Amino acid sequence: MFNPRPEIEYADTIVIKEFQEKKLVEMLDYLSNSSRYYQTLFSKNQIDIKEIQSIEDLKKLPVTTKEDLATYNQDFVCVHQEKIIDYITTSGTVGNPVSLMMTDIDLERLAYNEAISFTVAGCKASDIIQLTTTIDKRFMAGIAYFLGAKKMGAGIIRVGAGMPELQWDSILRFKPTVLIAVPSFILKLIDYAKKNNIDLKKSTIKKVICIGEPIRNINFEFNTLGLKIREEWPIDLYSTYASTEMATAFTECEHGAGGHHHPELIIVEFLDENDQTVGDEEPGEVTITTLGVEGMPLLRYKTGDICHHYNDKCACGRTTMRLGPVIGRKKQMIKYKGTTIFPFSIHEVLNSIEEIESYLIEVSTNEIGTDDILIKLSTKKPVDSKFEKELKDHFRAKLRVAPSILILEKAVLQSIQMPESGRKPILFIDNRIEAIS
After folding, report:
1. Do 304 and 331 contact (CB within 8 A), yes or no?
2. How many domains does the chain have?
3. Taken in order 336, 340, 342, 344, is the CA torsion positive or negative?
4. pLDDT above 60 (res 121)
5. Which of 195, 206, 197 is CA-nearest to residue 233?
6. pLDDT tens digit string along 339-394?
7. What whole-number distance in Å separates Cα of residue 259 and Cα of residue 307?
8. What pLDDT, on the 0 to 100 scale, is given for residue 397?
9. What is the CA radius of gyration of the chain?
């Protein structure tokens, strides 16, 4: 029977650590017997896995990168092909997509992860959850939300991505209480409602599980995107962070102070650029070791995401570590005119401009070998050259530098953002030489 409050997530931190270390030893034994990639890694580096008994001992092991996973993809598979049930590819936010294969055990783990993540956000079996994410195109998130809601016993409405008219038809027809949505898409739902005389305050939607984009700053206050949603639609917003490779989510509770760690599913380290553990107050790259994965378990896998983490007990009673909003992706860091910028900072500026309807950030290498930024955007109404000047001044005020601006027709921009094979809108394209070499 599904337990929405796993005891380990409320246990003493020493108990959690001992629990994880037992699982780590089991996982290392499994890898040494079943994974060609890690068998080679252990042999090449003369690693005796019996010497890895604690979380601290992990630093004796090399990290695994996305490039490793892409280059030696099949060597990570630990089971015979007949045990593989689901084939998945990452969305390729940074670099080329990689493939992952999941067994029935992995799908059950995925369902458990999402079910307890929903309950962290206060969802219940009595809820009806509307999915605004695709469940096809080899996308993990959609199937994860479906399986999690099913395991929890909630009702499910599978609408898929986009289509504000159909989303609202489903909301008015079936009266869901929870949305799973990309935050910027919520603004499109709000815009459709206003244009079609739909009273947002009378909607049955009580909360949104926000995916793919941050809605909070590192101090946990709502960022520009979160504030814009809340100003128009008085509903509860919950941040969540996940990646395909970890098959685990960090979802915040009602106190909105970071996404809760599920220690029964994953070990998390926060590393600097030299693969050393950062201090509690420092941001670090989220590096994960999966627990309970059968098909393609990962050991010290560097996600590329830079986050803060928090170890104090949450007001909800959980004692697990909490993950702060993603500051940026390591590979997306931009050095522009002497200033270090992450795309998140650019998003913040663009989301604060009322006239902007949609946008895409493109980064490239210029003729002198440094980073260039071009922002392609569409506006709600025609604008003049004064708008572009004011936008650049706004960038200078917020970021000290102003990128190049290209205003496009909405349809033209949408064709770039959402190619036929796409699963979610593209907001960042990295054309830098080192990114594609």
Report:
1. yes
2. 2
3. negative
4. yes
5. 206
6. 777 777 788 888 888 899 889 999 988 876 778 899 999 998 888 888 989 999 88
7. 11
8. 84
9. 22
For 228-297, give the secondary structure using H, E and C.
HHHHHCCCEEEEEEEECCCCEEEEECCCCCCEECCCCCEEEEEECCCCCECCCCCCEEEEEEECCCCCCC
Same domain for 160 and 124 = yes
Same domain, 183 and 206: yes
Q: Which pTM value belongs to this model?
A: 0.80
Residues 23 and 106 in one domain: yes
113 and 175 together in one domain: yes
Listed residue (358, 352, 380, 377) closest to 228, CA to CA: 352
Q: Is 342 left (phi over 0), alpha (psi -120 to 50) or beta?
A: beta
Percentages of the chain per state (helix, strand, coil), in multiples of 5: 35, 25, 40
Average pLDDT over residues 305-313: 92
SS3 100: strand
Beta bridge partners of 114: none
Instruction: Examine the domain organization and report whether 359 and 319 are in the same domain.
Output: no
Strands 428-431 and 404-407: unpaired
Same domain, 226 and 353: no
Which residue among 299, 327, 355 closes a domain? Answer: 327
Regarding whether 96 and 53 lie in a shared domain, the answer is yes
- Cα separation, 227 vs 232, in Å, equals 9
**CATH number of 402's domain:** 3.30.300.30
Any idea what the CATH number is for the domain that residue 227 is in?
A: 3.40.50.12780
Strand (E) or helix (H) holding 395: helix 385-399
Consecutive H or E run containing 335? strand 334-336
Q: Confidence band (pLDDT; 50, 70, 90) for 437?
A: very low
Confidence bin at 176 (pLDDT 50/70/90):
very high
Rounded to whole angstroms, how far apart are CA atoms 73 and 75? Answer: 5
User: Do 340 and 311 share a domain, yes or no?
Assistant: no
> With contact defined as beta carbons under 8 Å apart, do 343 and 428 qualify?
yes
pLDDT for 236-251, tens place per residue? 999 999 988 999 999 9
At which of 312, 327, 342 does a domain end? 327
Alpha carbon distance 108, 144 (integer Å): 10
**Structural domain boundaries, residue 385:** 333-436
CA terminus-to-terminus distance, the chain: 50
